[in-house]
Amino acid sequence: MNSLKNRRRAIAGTALVSLMAVNLSACFSQASSSTSLAYQQSLPDHQVNSPWFQQGQLELQNKMQHSVLKGSASKAKNVILFVGDGMGVSTVTAARILQGQIAGESGEENLLSFEQLPFSGFSKTYNVDQQTPDSAGTMTAMMTGVKTDAGILSVDEHANRSDCNSAQGRDLVSVLELSQLAGKATGIVTTARITHATPAASYAKSAERDWEDDSELSTEAKANGCIDIAQQFIAASPEINVTLGGGRKHFLAESLGGSRLDGKNLIQQWKSKNTQGQYIASREELLALDANNTTSLLGLFNNSHMDYSAEESAEPSLLEMTNTALSILKNEQQGFFLIVEAGRIDHGHHAGNAYNALHETIDLSDAVASALSQVDLSETLVIVTADHSHVMTFAGYPKRGNPILGKVVAAGEDSPTLAGDGLPYTTLSYMNGRGMHDLGGEGNADVVKKLATNVGRKDISNIDTETPGYHQEALVPRHSETHGGEDVGIYATGPGAQWLTGVNEQNMIFHVMALSLFGD
Ligand SMILES: [Zn+2]
């Protein structure tokens, strides 16, 4: 029984490798039908036959057949997928108001750039094994059309998390890899480590998202030949034109200031594999780049995640990285596929710090606005969504125009409303996490991780809650605030965007991108 199972896995794995190597033009020139598109021949059987994959495809077909938009244009040359990591609906609403208030307005009327896109819908984010999901399973759903378990990167649900052997032969092919097969340029931009779950789901296959370098691989994983995510990135790198983000430590040996135990310098390996490529590590180098003479670029701007934009930092912004990526990718005549992740919205929330989460969301809005101005929307599908939500709530009865990071002040009043316990409270707060901390001007939300939890009601009468370092009150004590399980928004424009309305399984987003890029 066991050996049969293993044999089947081995066959599936072999099939994937050989399929990835087949003549590319053959894959995309064959006739396709609405039920089996030609690109699917580049996918392993267990991916195409997965109930999740088939359900997503059916969901899309039903929409296309029954919508008043039946027959409308869906073919796109380019796709940009923006992911606000942890950007739930309450985050979007609060960021919209904050952006408006920074501009001197009341705030409520404002719209972020992506909220102005013509199509929007909901995404059901659960993982195969979790009601409230994690980023590895959710990005796998968007990248491959297949939902999987929490913590797993582009390997299907038959693998067990952290069990290398169980993942053998269960690899899934991502839309980024399909784009490469189709001759398109590809890019990844993130403010997190490039080996972190969201970006990694596009190029790596791993039973464990935390295997970012070899120091994190288990004994079982090493014994069974599983490769760390940074090493997988290097193997995939000749096909990825642009990668910009953080995470340098996972590419360098301990002796070079990194965290690798194998003594390797993977940045040097990248240079050897990409002899025409440019490696950069600073904002100055990024801004000085000649995009027209760059076809391969790796930029690692921080040892770990990039700085929060609220911090004093010399690092490039998400907008600057997005602009550079686009200016390189747009040179490819066959089109491009670009992922842009605002990775630190999630981290601000995990720290219980709405200031950073909202400012990172505004940064995403700025990056989207810039991208929209640089692409032809008749041939570019632009999707903005989140992988999952967070437990930040927007509550009380603050008056119109009340500072979104402030204490609740009721309509007609000038001083904060007192709750049943006689204490004021903020409009934004968290269901769980580390609780209230007044860190004043501190822009790095993660500093709170060094402090004891301080949950429950606190007297914040004399605290300025609008500073970067204010961490909101929380009810349930946890070392880290958690993700939320409700749906997140999908905002879209360009060919295919019209199918991203209503309530969708998250893996349906893959099918819309694949149909747009590779359909007839
Ligand atoms: Zn998270």
Characterise this structure.
The structure is a single chain. This protein is an alpha/beta fold and 520 residues long. It has a domain at 78-83 and 118-376 and 490-518: Alkaline Phosphatase, subunit A. It has helices spanning 2-21, 24-29, 45-48, 51-66, 89-102, 135-144, 175-181, 197-200, 219-223, 229-236, 266-273, 283-288, 318-329, 344-350, 354-372, 508-518, and strands spanning 78-84, 119-124, 185-193, 242-246, 278-280, 297-300, 336-342, 380-386, 389-390, 392-394, 428-433, 437-438, 470-471, 474-477, 483-484, 488-493, 502-505. The strands form four sheets. A ten-stranded mixed β-sheet has the order 5-6-4-3-7-1-8-16-2-17, sandwiched between helices. Strands 10-11-14 form a three-stranded mixed β-sheet. Strand 5 (278-280), helix 12 and strand 6 form a beta-alpha-beta unit. The longest helix has 20 residues, at 2-21. The protein is globular. It starts with a helix and ends with a helix. The relative contact order is 0.17. Residues 86, 135, 346, 350, 483 line the site of zinc ion. Zinc ion is lined by residues 86, 135, 346, 350, 483.
